[in-house]
Amino acid sequence: MQALNSLNRYAPQALALLRIATALIFIAHGTQKLFGFPAPPASGLPAAFTLFWFGAILEAFGGLLILIGLWTRPVAFILSGEMAYAYWMFHAPRNVYPLLNNGDAAILYCFVFFYLVFAGAGAWALDNRSK
Fold this sequence. Notes:
It is found in: Cell membrane. The chain has six helices and no strands.
């Protein structure tokens, strides 16, 4: 048990890896909807200033802020809300079970971002720069 407790000193780095990996994958959802990269969405690119377009802006640019660890807590709060909204408005009405409504990623993003609201950015973040 002592050996496992010694891992606590790496918690800030582990949190940073969670933040960075989550952000990189999340950014791809936004760039797909905004620019058709890495592949255009099946439904096509959203029209400017629609709900889906604003979601894509949040995903791409909010994801970038999470990636670099800038304003992590407030941005994570907004993104957590976006993912909760996405789940309840677009996934849950299809089916009760996340596996069947393709909402499991939205739920995971929601709770990872919600965790970042409370845990902060971890190591390697611009939020940690001295003032």
